[in-house]
């Protein structure tokens, strides 16, 4: 489906982003689609070649969370979660006192491995998304392993997790579904569905073209999932879409996501509305740098606001060569 003239005009703004730690957006930040600000690369979060744990020399799917005032004796004000993709994977943690970095590696990574005695043994675990669950006063970790199953683990300190349960699998999607992974969960009310949490994730099937799926939950543990994609790859002119993240602005809800998983690609933005009934594809949200560290590809963004400045922390570089990068509005 071709983009409308309005979508193409919005796309030419190229860059943009938003929040994720609960702070409001400055009304003057109007550079990107739908009024989201323009993000520019600042630095990589750390030198991945100097990490103690990085068995495959590639990292994906960052998730940044503010922990100061939420947990006792944090290592820093912010915890940054990430993982290698390829086996053995492993959920990793670094920490810092500013969203601008640098971040320090937790010395005992991985904090969650591909083997959890009594629960699972898989080839790899990856794609960490951590939610501060205000109801439980816990950090809830959603992660995949294998790509057919998304799991939940819970923690009081953001380091030591207790396994909870499977929350999503291919068997909960239409017949022929082959992947349900790269999930992020957000506190978002859907009164019509008696839900207080929303999940967005990547879904694949026998056509091998990835879409964005979604689901809703009253408690963040037990989920109902739509049987049709939230965002269909073909409707935005991409072979694959993934790495979705919810954002809010103008009294509405948006999804930011990356295109073509393995090759280069932009971040796109779609307005879904607060009740997820809209499908207004607004074009390009952010273009990758041609040079390092992006080398034509950015993906899986996570967002935060510190002292009124918005930040985007994202996966930069080729799919299996990625680093974790920081951009500032």
Secondary-structure map with pairings?
Layout (H helix, E strand, L loop, with lengths): L4 H7 L28 E5 L15 E7 L11 E6 L8 E5 L7 E2 L9 E2 L3 E2 L4 E8 L4 E7 L4 E7 L6 E8 L7 E14 L4 E11 L5 E7 L5 E3 L15 E9 L2 E8 L7 E5 L8 E7 L11 E9 L2 E8 L6 E6 L1
Antiparallel strand pairs: 1-22, 2-3, 3-4, 4-5, 6-7, 8-9, 9-10, 10-11, 12-13, 13-14, 14-15, 16-17, 17-18, 18-19, 20-21, 21-22
Protein name: Secreted protein
Keywords: Signal
Organism: Amycolatopsis antarctica
Describe the structure.
The protein has 329 residues and is an all-beta fold. The protein has a single domain (5-328), classed as 5 Propeller (Tachylectin-2, Chain A), CATH 2.115.10.20. It contains 1 helix and 22 strands. The protein has one helix spanning 5-11, and strands at 40-44, 60-66, 78-83, 92-96, 104-105, 115-116, 120-121, 126-133, 138-144, 149-155, 162-169, 177-190, 195-205, 211-217, 223-225, 241-249, 252-259, 267-271, 280-286, 298-306, 309-316, 323-328. A 4-stranded antiparallel beta sheet has the order 1-22-21-20, with no helix packed on it. Strands 2-3-4-5 form a 4-stranded antiparallel beta sheet, with no helix packed on it. Strands 8-9-10-11 form a 4-stranded antiparallel beta sheet, with no helix packed on it. A hairpin with an 8-residue loop joins strand 18 and strand 19. The two termini are 31 Å apart. Residues 1-31 have low confidence and may be disordered.
